[in-house]
Specification:
Elements: E1 6-12, E2 20-25, E3 29-33, H1 40-57, H2 62-68, E4 76-80, E5 85-88, H3 101-105, H4 107-118, E6 136-144, E7 151-159, E8 172-176, H5 178-181, H6 203-210, H7 225-233, E9 237-240, E10 245-248, H8 251-260, H9 269-278, E11 279-283, H10 294-298, H11 306-311, H12 314-322, H13 330-345, H14 362-374, E12 382-386, H15 394-409, E13 413-417, H16 421-425, E14 429-434, E15 443-448, H17 459-462, E16 479-486, E17 494-500, H18 514-525, H19 545-549, H20 552-563
Parallel strand pairs: 3-13, 3-14, 5-12, 12-13
Antiparallel strand pairs: 1-2, 1-4, 6-7, 8-11, 9-10, 14-15, 16-17
Helix pairs in contact: 4-13, 12-13, 14-15
């Protein structure tokens, strides 16, 4: 077997790592194991992957680097033989409501090409089937370089786009409750606009007050029809304030542009609550939620439009595509079938191409990104995965293993943080971190093949073959949350009583509807349900575990009481902030 060398790590001290020296074989599948907090992520993500990406950033010009930030060098003596690292983590895919499974994987782009060539009637190029491209015309004078001085011509050009004009390609429209948005009894200066960021003193408030279109001391209930129309719907115009010139939009138009077109989950909690308070979202009545205009929907292949194909399960779409045998699209159909086959093979065959990316779970998002990289022509790349089997049914773990092996066999180095013994068994190399978590971890306690891990005496090794026993008795439920006729995503009129006061496990293969039932439907039936998922904690750079959990508040008060001073003196966000870094703990690297 060829020896491709190794990634040499010397003196790694990032976070809790204790001067780790390690050689990781290249072009192999290496799995990093150990208890949570033992240092796996510190080594793989924050040392190896971070340094690789930092070195790549340094190849760009100083001008480009100015827009990319300057990540610090990891705390490590040396890293040798690094290759370009691609991180495939469990972060949710995009907060853009226009992003779907089809656009994120380029599958929709290939489907658009097929319909542009075979669809009947012919409606235009591939852009005519894009819900992100508006249709329209452009008219103006052009200078054509003919002879001396050129020739001026008036031209009318048509833009072929498939975007539904009413919903602007979102598939849904939001109706705004005006009475929830404004208090008609108040004036603009009194805070008549109740939406966050539009209160007196904010920039958005200044636009309305300085526009000159309204009397800011006049109650909104006394506005004329013309003033109401201008306040709510514009038209767009330039407004000169004391300091800068700003663009005026009607209040409803501004709210739609700034907030309603975004994924609600990407907004801050206060803004998300305000959006839910003032707006109601329904499927677009014009396009029926397909995002496409009538012309794009009219073109069919074997009786199906592109919206029909995008709404099909991937496993069903594959059958439709395999029946297409036209020489003009044979290469693109083959590429699309290969992509969708990979998705189905890894357990994503239940998804549809029109599924919004933001609705995918962390595990689904990670596997979708993985499939995208399978089709890449790049080799000798380091792929870094964070627990790719999390949330996977045992039925689907084997498929995940095969996918990771395919990435390796293309000539790539694959680094995986994992707890599942099934994935450990297919690894070429195991690195077990420990012995425990935090300050008691940060060491390599075992390195070698899987066969030696069980006999290593480490916590991971001892638990490889341990079987969990069943409880002799179970608790009695105190009640139940009733879910009736649930039809979200792939649920088919599911009715179930979820018992309360007990620990309930919801099982099933990936895509069977577990998240749709529990995350999607149960909170609607009982608003008191608290959802704790894998999404990242949203906070500023000043946020840390102590401030987020509220633990720091009593600690500050205790120090203040013991010293007879104010608690603010022990806050990095207040009087206790360092004067050099303003409480951030970091200063710019000159």
């Amino acid at each position: 077997m060829a020896d491709w060398g190794a990634i040499r790590v010397r003196g790694a001290r990032e976070n809790n790592l204790r001067d780790i020296d390690l050689d990781i074989p290249k072009r192999k599948l290496t799995v990093f194991t150990g208890v949570s907090g033992s240092g796996k992520s510190s080594l793989v993500f924050e040392t190896i992957a971070a340094e690789s990406q930092r070195l790549i950033n340094e190849t760009y010009s100083a001008f480009v680097q100015g827009f990319m930030g300057t990540p610090p060098r990891p705390d490590v003596d040396s890293l040798e033989n690094l290759t370009a690292a691609i991180i495939v983590d469990q972060e949710r895919m995009g907060a853009n409501s226009r992003s779907t499974v089809g656009t994120a994987t380029d599958a929709h782009a290939m489907l658009r090409i097929i319909f542009s060539r075979l669809g009947q009637p012919q409606v235009g190029p591939a852009s005519a089937f894009s819900f992100n491209m508006p249709a329209g015309t452009v008219q103006g004078e052009m200078v054509l370089e003919r002879g001396v001085g050129g020739q001026r011509e008036e031209r009318l050009e048509r833009i072929s786009g498939g975007m539904c004009a009413e919903c602007e390609g979102l598939g849904r429209v939001s109706t705004v409750d005006i009475d929830a948005l404004v208090d008609r009894s108040k004036t603009l200066n009194e805070g008549a606009i109740t939406f966050p960021n539009f209160q007196p003193g904010t920039w958005y408030h200044r636009i309305f007050v300085d526009s000159g279109f309204f009397d800011p001391d006049k109650p909104l209930r006394d506005f004329t029809e013309a003033e109401w129309e201008r306040l709510l719907y514009g038209p767009e115009s330039k407004v000169k304030t004391e300091l800068v010139n700003l663009t005026y939009y009607g209040l409803v138009d501004r709210i739609r542009r700034q907030y309603l077109i975004k994924d609600p989950e990407s907004l801050q909690p206060s803004l998300r609550a305000a959006v839910e308070r003032v707006s109601t979202s329904i499927a677009c009545p014009s396009c029926g939620g397909t995002r496409l205009n009538a012309l794009a929907r009219s073109s069919l292949i074997e009786g199906k439009g592109i919206a029909d194909c995008a709404a099909m399960q991937i496993s069903d779409l594959l059958g439709f595509l395999r029946a297409i045998d036209d020489p003009s699209v044979r290469p693109i159909v083959g590429a699309l079938v290969g992509l969708l086959d990979s998705m189905a093979h890894i357990g994503l065959g239940y998804l549809s191409l029109d599924r919004e990316s933001s609705t995918l779970s962390g595990g689904e998002a990670q596997r979708t990104k993985m499939v995208r990289h399978l089709g890449s022509s790049l080799t000798d790349v380091t792929y870094v995965f964070d627990e790719p089997t999390i949330g996977l049914h045992a039925h689907d773990v084997q498929r995940m293993n095969e996918l990771l092996q395919r990435l390796r066999d293309k000539g790539n180095t694959v680094l995986v943080i994992e707890h599942d013994p099934e994935l450990m068994r297919v690894a070429d190399h195991i690195v077990d971190m420990g012995p425990r978590a935090g300050i008691h971890g940060g060491e390599v306690v075992y390195e070698g093949p899987y066969a030696g891990l069980a006999a290593s005496g480490t916590i991971t090794g001892r638990h490889l073959e341990q079987q969990q026993g069943l409880k002799a008795s179970v608790r009695t439920p105190r009640g139940a949350i009733r879910i009736r006729d649930a039809r979200l995503h792939n649920l088919q009129d599911v009715s179930v009583d979820v018992p309360t006061g007990v620990l309930v496990a919801v099982t099933g293969v990936a895509g069977s509807g577990k998240s749709s039932l529990i995350h999607g439907c149960m909170p609607r039936e009982d608003p008191s349900v608290t959802l704790i998922d894998q999404s990242a904690i949203r906070g500023s750079r000043r946020s840390n575990p102590a401030t987020y959990t509220g633990m720091l508040e009593p600690i500050r008060k205790a120090f203040a009481s013991a010293n007879g001073v104010r608690p603010a003196l022990f806050s990095a966000n207040s009087e206790g902030a360092c004067s050099a870094c303003k409480g951030l703990g970091l200063v710019p690297n000159p």
